[in-house]
Automatic annotation (TrEMBL):
It comes from Virgibacillus salinus. This is Catalase. Its cofactor is heme. The active site is at residues 56, 129. Residues 372-389 have a biased composition (Polar residues). Residues 9-392 form the Catalase core domain. It comes from the Bacteria. GO terms for cellular component: cytoplasm. It catalyses: 2 H2O2 = O2 + 2 H2O. Residues 1-28, 372-399 are annotated as: Disordered. GO terms for biological process: hydrogen peroxide catabolic process; response to hydrogen peroxide.
Amino acid sequence: MSNEKKRMTTASGAPVGDNQNSITAGNRGPTLIQDVHLLEKLAHFNRERVPERVVHAKGAGAHGYFEVTNDLSKYTKADFLSEVGKRTPMFIRFSTVAGELGSADTVRDPRGFAVKFYTEEGNYDLVGNNTPIFFIRDAIKFPDFIHTQKRNPKTHLKDKNAVWDFWSLSPESLHQITYLHGDRGIPATFRHMNGYGSHTFKWVNDKGEAFWVKYHFISEQGVKGLDEDVAGQIAGDNPDYHVEDLYNSIDKGDFPAWKLYVQIMPYEDAKTYRFDPFDVTKVWSQKDYPRIEVGRMVLDRNPENYFAEVEQAAFSPGNFVPGIEASPDKMLQGRLFGYSDAHRYRIGANHQELPINRPVNEVNNNQFDGQMRYSNGSGSVNYEPNSYDTEPKEDPASKISPFEVYGEADSVSYDSDDHYTQAGDLYRLMSADEKDRLIDAFVGHMKPVDKDEIKLRQIEHFYKADPEWGERIAKGLGLSVPEGVK
C-alpha cells in the first residue's frame, strides 16, 4: 500500500498550493479575484446546507439488513419476501416530527420510522411512525396541521393555542394525541420504540389475489419511555441524546433489531369491517386480525457521512415494488405525491441518483437532464412508443391490481365520524398510574392555552371518549365539563 499523502485539490482536480493564505496584492492586500481556490471555498461554504425537511428535520440513520423468517408468498409476490432466509440490505431513518434540525431529541413528539429496502425489483420505502395511527385522515388538512406544530409566524414561538385550537376542531386527532401524551410519547431511545406503517396497504400475490395489510415493527429491545421531567433535563444537557445513543450502540456492536409482523385482512372484509380500514386514525383489532410474523430487521452499520447518507436520504411511500400497492387511504394518497415532491424541491429532481437513494437494480426510463444529472443513457430516442424498437418498454405484468371505487366525485369525508370509541378504549386499557401520567401530561400541555373556549371544546372530546377522562381533565384545568355534553 502506498504511503504517499493525498494532495489537496480544487473541485476540478487542480492541486492547491496554499490552503492557509489567500492571494493578495502585497502583504496587506487587498485580495485578488484570481484566487479561484478561495472563491470556490467561500461559494461552496455558502451552499453547504440544503433546506431542512419541513417535517422530520432532526433524525439519525443506520444501515442494516432485513431477513425473512416466515413464508407469506401466498399473500404477496414481492420478491424480497419470497423465501425464508432471504436477506435484503436496508437503511432506516428515525426522526422527530415538529422540531427543527437543531431541536432536542427528547421532546414529546411522534417519531418517524422510515425504512428503505434495496430490493432486486427496486427500492421499497415503508415510511411510518412509532404510532399505529395519525392525527388526521385526509391530506388536505396536513399543511394546516403542521402549521400549528411549527412556529407562530408573528412571534416565531411555539404556539400551544394553535396546537389545541386545531386539535379541538379536529376530533379525529383524539386517538393519536392520546398515544402522544401517554407513556410512549417520549421514547427512551430510538432503539426502544416500535415502528408502524400506520396506513393500510395492499398486497397482491402471483395469482392476482389482493389483501389489505398493516405493518408492525416490534422492538426486540422492548418499549421504554422517558419521564417528562427527565426528558426535559436531557433536552438541556444533551439535545442529541437519541442520535448519540443509536450511533454508540451500533459502534460497540450492540445491534438493535425489530421483528416485522403484519395484520392481513381479506380483500372483501374491508367492505363490512366495523371501522373503516383505510382511516389512518383507526387501528384494526388484533383479535380480528392477529399479527403474523414476516421477518427480522437488524441495524449493524453506522453511516460514514451523515450528510450524504442521512440528510440526503429520500423516502417516499410511493416507492413500491411488484406485489405491494397503495390503498384508498386518503392520507396515504396525498403522501404519494407530497414526499417525492419535497425531495425534488429540497435536493433536486435527480435525488434518486444519489448513492443512498440509488436502487441496486438497473434504472431504465426516459427522464433526462435536470440539475446534478450525470447519466442520461446512451441512446438518442428518449420517448415511447417509438418506431425504432428501442428500450425501455412497459411491462404489462407489472400493472397494479384493480380495486373498486364507489359513489360520485365530490369533496367528501369518511363514512364514519366515530372518533371516540378507539380513543376511549385506549384510555381504559391503561393502568391507574398510566392514566395519572396521561392526565398530568394533557393538563400541563393545555394550561397555557389562553382561551377557555378551546379547552372546553377539547374537554368535550375527552368526555365523549370516557366520562371519567373528561371530568379529570376539566378538574385539572379548573373548569367543568359543559352541561350540554353530559
